[in-house]
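Worked example (supplementary).
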Amino acid sequence: MPTPTLTQSLIIALLQAILVVVFIFVVVPLTLYAERKVLGYLQLRLGATRVAGSLTGLTGFVNRNMWKLGKVPMLSYWRGIVMLVGDVVKMIIKEDILPTKADKFVFFIAPAISFCASVIVFAAISFVPGTLFVLPKFIPIVGGLPVSGAVGDVNVGLLWILGIASVGVYGIVLAGWASNSKYPLLGGLRSGAQIVSYEVPLTLSLLAPVVMSGSLQFSEMSRSMAVGLPYWGIVPQFLGFFIYLTCGFAETNRLPFDMPEAENELVAGFHTEYSGMKFGFFYLAEYINMTVVAALASAFFLGGPWLMPFGLHGVLNPFFTAHLPAFLVPLLCEPHAIFFVVKIIFILFVYIWVRGTIPRYRYDQVMAVAWKYLIPLTLVNLMLAAAVRYLTV
Amino acid sequence: MKKFLKTLIPFDIAKGLTITGTHFAKVFLSANRRKVPFHVVSEYPEVPAKMQPRFRGRLQMLKDEAGEIKCVCCLACEKICPTQVITIESGKKEGRKTKLPTRYDFEMERCIFCEFCVESCGFDAIILNHQFELAVYNREDMSLSMEGTFQNMFGVSPVAKFSVADEEK
Amino acid sequence: MEQLLIKIGQNLFLVFGLMALGGAATMVLAKNAVHSVIGFLFAMLSMAGCYLTIGAEFMGVAQLLVYAGGIVVLFLFVVMLVELSKSREKGLFQRQTPFALVLVVAGAVAFVGVFWRTIFGSSAAEALTLSPNLMAQGEKLGNAQMLSRGLFAEYLLPFEILSVILLVALVGAVVLAKTERV
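After joint prediction of all chains, the assembly is encoded as:
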């Protein structure tokens, strides 16, 4: 395989960045849609089944008769998807209001910081170790070169993710301050305090995979947590997984920890004064952060891009290679980006599931959970991980 | 210690997640396949809404089996009405022992749907039916009387396309 | 094209350094305190970029994690809640200006002196080259591993003493901030 020149590798990196953005803009709107439907199902509702004007048109006619028969029309499962377009269009064409007393520069830059920080994180996330696909020969400059599964799989990848994610808090705090209003300021302060304090247990719980794999590189950690051990990372790290997930909920300001936008106390928290696409950036950033947390969880605890669960790799792979037809072997034994994405989607589902189940904590309870329970637990968990490492290596 | 352990091991959270997860699975898998669906929402504009029996909708006068108006003009409803939306004029009819209303006016725009009139009626001559779609285009349509082509005291209003189930129409 | 890109790649340190200087200038010159915190944040991010360009990934990311993610947030918290528009507080800060200027000049002289000695003095050659055994290790192991080996194997005692000092500062802050129980 030829070594790519600088130009070629830059073009490939650009291509990867475009792929990541496409991935984000496919997954995030689908999560929005799924949030409506899944929340509905969890509460014995049907979620979004129609948009306005359902009594007109052919689908409306078909649907009406199916409803009368007592059936849920099959189309209606999908008809809520029009709402996606509606959401996006609304965000784009809505009037962008700038409060008179707001600090214009900070008010403008806050959503940008929030959004950029959450997207840049994806640079270090490796969807599959090694090559994702090889570019076909006929492409002019970069034909025949491999595209790796990560934009930049640097050897401090995990720290990069944590560092950039911690920059994201500026967006929220600055937005609260720049709005020059009481509710956003309180929301921003709360959220800043919450994110800064939950960063501690989050980082500590991610230290356990670091200890067990002995690396900070994302793909290496993912590989050794999935197939380096004879079982998935979740088996020795059961405690760590749940601590990580809890901190992930808190870090992305989701229920049951959505302090910054506690609707019944603070109107909408830090983005009360925002509207239009600036609000849209905050909205997108929240969902991208969710995806990042889900990606970390699936890579380190749920076996990443490998299919076989719970250590069946070691047991079943020799069997597969011996007895199965040749085209099935790479699918079952080799890592694939698609399994990684499926696991991400599962964690996103868990997000919505928890949101539909657990009511919001009080603010002092949120802080107490972080400092009094999670941090000691993570320390215990870290010792557990060290013991596993000591026994296996 | 027990409290500490209870906080540490989230049994209640697991229980809640189980319940909602079961709901999700049931609705997701059976939304279209069962006669009685698990989901509790009604498909309102396409299917007439089923109201609860005690729902208080619009005031309606009843007739007996012979087609006679049950009202005997005792004026109990007119007196008890807190917003005084009912006006009754009594008259006589041959072959009927009791009095008969010649006018029974009901100003719906001021009605507060308290059901005092129905409770005070000793002859079960009026009810509040299950019609909740009461919007009209003209203000005059809000005042109902015994005659009247658009809507009157005896039937369900034509604007109530979806609200009242078939057996009440 | 290729040559141009390589040229840019070689001079990225300069680019990030100029960006850091710009951020620092914003921090000093901005009228609004929050704007200067944003300038500070920008300078810190650019410095992380500087570290990354000279191949010190761990230092760069630690800069990001500690300074940009932790310390500047605390700055921001303090600055946000102190309103400097009141004239009395402004006066307080303006009275400090001459003393501050004297201190800054003294510090700058000392700093430039040390810098001059290090770069152009007699021991310059020794200070500016990495010791060969560390260099070999670094190429073999990577940045983070080498640093951790230095910190936790060779210089463990100074490291632990440093952390004790930090702990003392923490306890002192708690004692100072604690209110008397009535």
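Two points are worth noting when inspecting this output. The mean pLDDT of chain C is 80. Chains C and B do not touch (no CB pair under 8 Å).
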